[in-house]
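Researcher: Here's a chain I'd like modeled. Treat it as a single chain, no partners, no ligands.
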Amino acid sequence: LTADEIEQVERLVNEQVMRNTALMTEIKPAEEAMASGAMALFGEKYGEQVRVVSVPGFSQELCGGTHCHATGDIGFFTITEEGGIAAGVRRIEALTGDGAVRHYQERRRAVDHLVAALGVPLEQAPDAVAKLQGEAKRLRREVEKTTAENLLGNRGAGPQVTEAGGVRLVTERRSGLAKEHLRTLADAHKSHVGSGVVVVASETEGKVLVIVAVTPDLTGKVNAAKLIRAIAPIVGGGGGGRADFAEAGGRHAERIDEMFTKARELLGEGAAA
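Model: Modeled as a single isolated chain. Structure tokens:
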């Protein structure tokens, strides 16, 4: 259900609540009750005699539960959750009476706090949140750009650029990089190389992280996932991914250079397609 449809259901039910209509209950043969239009619950089994609960002029259902004497006893109705439970069947969860009032008050308190934090009138809150989200997205891009520039600027030994099988290969070994920073480094090399394959590795607390990235023009010739599955065992690990990007872990940092050499050999042999 959409937000508008949920509101329509709530308004419809609360209109009946405010009318304070007296309920009617009858015991009828099941066939007669069904023929009169009484609604049966999905998946329920009924005996020969059924209890029919009606709000005159509004609804009629088969139900054996406990009910109020009039719709006004419900007090207030609000939907808290709805979702599909089977093909063509949805379940609605709702609160009534004091529970519904408390739920409304909690929501109102949360909205009041949000509006106060935003420092704008309630009607301007959605636009203010959208503006903040846009600003946060812009700042994330700037942070990612700055991080990439810093990673490329603090190279230590720096990347090694070679060529094998007509493919440019960029390899670089780092220490202490978290996975997200190693990904940023791989993406930065991928952007700078233009056309080629990037293999970067970082040793952190005795563990090895490896990333292989392939530029779009070479994914038909070099498969990152296949390449990393071939070289990761050298550092005692394994991994996988997509044709253009793959990751692996390992535990033998002393064999990282050997892994880079194997990557060059496989590219030279054309064995990473």
